[in-house]
Amino acid sequence: MSFELAVRLSEIALGFLFLLQMGEHLRSASYERLLFIWRGVMAVFLVTGFMLSFVYVSLIMNALFILYRFQGPYNGGSDRMSLLLLCCLAFAHYLPEQYMKEMALGYLALQLILSYFIAGYVKVVNSEWRRGRALQDVFLFSAYPVSEAARRWADKPYLLLVMSWSVMLLELLFPIFVFNAYMLYAALFLTGLFHLANACLFGLNRFFWAWIAAYPILIWFSSQFLGT
């Protein structure tokens, strides 16, 4: 994948994520609603590729106002990833030399790789995850809006054990997949399904779009090693 195509695909996906965020806040207090309408309007420009030099400045200013309003990234990891993606894409747009632009996106790709590996490491050193009990507790006691049908998965400990180890191995081995195009596409398909399942089961839709938006950059980054 070319550098330009990777950037454009990530911009489109990030813009779609920002539009979803705007929709979540249309019934918020007036100041908060205004912040996310501002973000949504700029997201339309980001998706279309219109006036990007202005759009990136505007979106970064908007992100700073939102960080101040909520005293940090109020939605945790997904907001951190979307902010990282926004900043790295902005650097790739403004930096004067091509190698500088590539370094900015390379940093983003490394952060994406580490996000999976560290998540896998944190799980595998936890005995509750190794026994499948952590995932069982997620379905039993999750504060997220889990359906009754999904909660019944907690009654299938052997299935949850397999699921737990499948997730941990996928995350721990993720850095290796960068060095083989077919393995990388397979891994991204599986991690995408994982994020989609979390969105459908627990309503974690922001994580799906925040990570998916960075996938084109990782594919480009991998191609630099593989010479494709």
Features:
mainly alpha, 0% strand, 228 residues, 81% helix, globular
Summarize the structure.
By secondary structure, the chain is mainly α. The chain has helices at residues 3-24, 30-48, 52-70, 77-94, 98-124, 127-130, 133-141, 148-151, 157-177, 181-202, 205-212, 215-226.
Indicate the mean pLDDT.
86
Shape, per Cα inertia axes? globular
Strand content: under 5%
Unreliably modeled segments: none
How many domains? The number is 1
Question: Layout of helices and strands, plus pairs?
Answer:
Layout: H1 3-24, H2 30-48, H3 52-70, H4 77-94, H5 98-124, H6 127-130, H7 133-141, H8 148-151, H9 157-177, H10 181-202, H11 205-212, H12 215-226
Helix pairs in contact: 1-2, 1-4, 1-11, 1-12, 2-3, 3-4, 4-5, 4-11, 5-9, 5-12, 7-9, 9-10, 10-11, 10-12
Structural notes for this entry:
- The chain has 228 residues and is an all-alpha fold.
- It has one domain (3-226).
- It contains twelve helices and no strands.
- The chain starts with a helix and ends with a helix.
